[in-house]
Amino acid sequence: MKLWAGRFSKEADKVTNDINASIGIDKRMWREDIEGSLAHSDMLAECGIISKEDRDKISEGLRRLADEIAKGETEIADSFEDIHSFVEGILTERIGDAGKRLHTARSRNDQVAVDIRLTLRNETDGLLSLVDELIEMLADLALQHSDVVMPGYTHLQRAQPVTFGHHLLAYAEMLLRDRGRLLDAKKRMNVCPLGAGALAGTSYPIDRELTAKTLGFDEPARNSLDAVSDRDFCLELASALSILMVHLSRFSEEIILWCSHEFKFIELDDAFSTGSSIMPQKKNPDIAEIVRGKAGRVFGSLTTLLTVMKGLPLAYNKDMQEDKEAIFNAFDTVSLCLRAFTPMLRTMTVNAENMRKAAAGGFINATDCADYLVGKGLPFRDAYKITGSLVAYCISNSKDLESLSLEEYKGFSELFEEDVFEAISLDTCVKNRTSYGGPSPENVRRQAAAVKAILKA
Ligand code: ARG
User: Fold this and answer.
1) What distance in angstroms lies between residue 85's CA and the mean position of ligand 1's atoms?
2) Which ligand 1 atom minimizes the distance to the CA of 81?
3) Side-chain half-sphere of 176: how many Cα atoms within 13 Å?
4) Rounded to the nearest 10 degrees, how much is the dihedral formed by the CA atoms of 376, 381, 387, 393?
5) The pLDDT of residue 1
6) Separation of CA 83 and ligand 1 centre (Å)
7) Which of 130, 382, 383, 452 has its CA 20 to 30 A from that of 115?
8) Which residue is closest in CA terms to ligand 1's atom 12?
9) What's the pLDDT tens digit per position in 298-336?
10) Eight-state DSSP code of residue 310
11) How confident is the model at residue 245 (pLDDT cuts 50, 70, 90)?
12) 3-state secondary structure of 76
């Protein structure tokens, strides 16, 4: 029987139930729904709105139900409209009138708003630990590869030498910002809508401070209309998760490139790769590709949420029921991606030799050669021009800057001395890039330690 049966003279059509029901999605919030109801009934008793005896029956009944669901002894039946009517329905079936008193001074509108916030608060914590794990692992890998020279790129053209550790720490920085966004979203989410009722509060003498406190919220929401119609926290979380997926997707793209025979910078562990059904030689970076693809799904959730919310008048509208499927899907997707991505990186083999070989080609030390001349007193623009001519000379003679003779150098500028070879060696080029935030091995070790310190703080 429907919660609103008194007003209606007909049963709902089957399709009405099909489109209206949300139990398939919101059963995920059963713990939080029960937690919210326990806090609500305690408050009702404290405020003298229901008797302590009824409160005890309700608490006992709710705890028993929670225990049974956790143990799998009671199944959440899809015949109910949503998790709220399921919990209240079973409770009332078991304890009678006391169960019918639970919904005093409450509506499903403030109830569902509490449930989602509690659920997403927990899920955000879970996700944050996965993000932290990835950042920590990147810092460890960076320490391990602090002096592995690799080409740094702009326009996907070899540009200047960096270290692999430095490259990894760039992603650690992105993920630290993702972490900050999630923590920040949590703050605004942690406000309690319970007691806002359907939209206009209640005339019962309830204590909203008490329920907010019991449920671990920072404060009760100040405006009852806003309390039941605010889904900003879903939008904020979906945005934060979308940006996070941008980062994982960019990283994936690099992993895929690095695994190719053209790069051969890394090799993924067999346990985190897949093969081909027809080409026996293939080893594919499928995890990275799927992560790159799944970014689309998370952006889709954000678009869904923005679109659902954009035209809604105050206060609650049923459109908002679409929020949970979108935001839960975003959480599940990001969580799965992180759970695959971290061990995939942890177990990869780094081909330092190939990275160095790639860095040795492509005149990646041309800037350092120009800087060498600047060190000898030449203005940078002149030094740049001379080095440009040197590069052109090397290209037409199939040489590189390392293999030119001093005589050849001197043909371009008398300022070149024997020490130019040391100045343009890859190790020197990288070791000297000690400016704050730069790729020198020493910097990488310091930055990795700083990243770890942020995680601990
Ligand atoms: N299943 C609903 C949702 O998720 C619960 C709130 C129902 N409120 C209502 N007025 N019908 O939004």
Assistant:
1) 10
2) 1
3) 20
4) -140
5) 66
6) 10
7) 130
8) 321
9) 999 999 999 999 999 999 999 999 999 999 999 999 999
10) T
11) very high
12) coil
